[in-house]
Amino acid sequence: MEIFLWILSLIGAFSIMEFMAWFTHKYIMHGFLWYLHEDHHKKDHDSWFERNDTFFLFYAVVSMLFVLSWAKLDFFYGLPIAIGIFLYGFTYFVVHDVFIHQRFKIFRNIDNKYARGIRRAHKIHHKNIHKKGGECFGMLIVPFKYFK
Questions:
Q1: Of 4, 33, 95, 144, which alpha carbon lies 20 to 30 A from 124's?
Q2: Tens digit of pLDDT for each residue in 89-122?
């Protein structure tokens, strides 16, 4: 039973991260921390790194705090929650930075309905280069209207 709860906690944390990605993107990145996210929409630098890349640090710290709560405070669910957050972050990196933005030149030839839908939704989001007015999505769940 403990393993089932552990796996359920990991999947739950991963799933909640999709909501957290949407929420932070809409209300924080396109809100009071726009100055960090803006260079993701308007390239104002020549560097491979963007100010926007600093957002991963927040979730890395949260994940590490759950590992510490598991290791030091004997919080049973700390490790699966931390792993769920980590796996979502890794998935986000692969889908968003590698697949969509091609920061590494792999996964270029993936062409199926789901891949086209994610790319289309992201492209529509990036058409807006301003703080307000852009549609915000999660990373894995986007409206069906983009899957043509």
A1: 33
A2: 999 888 888 888 887 888 778 888 888 888 887 7
The answer to whether 83 and 10 have CB atoms below 8 angstroms apart is: yes
* Domain-embedded: residue 20: yes
- Pull the structure tokens for residue 45: 């630098």
Q: For residue 129, tell me if it sits in a domain.
A: no
pLDDT tens digits for 24-55?
888 888 899 998 888 888 777 777 788 888 98
Q: Which residue segment(s) compose the domain that 71 sits in?
A: 2-108
> What is the DSSP-derived secondary structure letter of residue 131?
S
Predicted confidence (pLDDT) at residue 140 exceeds the cutoff of 70: no
The percentage of residues in the chain with a pLDDT greater than 70, rounded to a whole number, is: 89
In a domain, 71, yes or no: yes
* Residues 29 and 126 sit within 8 Å (Cβ to Cβ): no
Tally of structural domains, the chain: 1
In a domain, 40, yes or no: yes
Q: Let me know: does 65 contact 84? Beta carbons within 8 Å.
A: no
Report H helices in the chain.
2-23, 34-41, 55-73, 78-92, 113-127
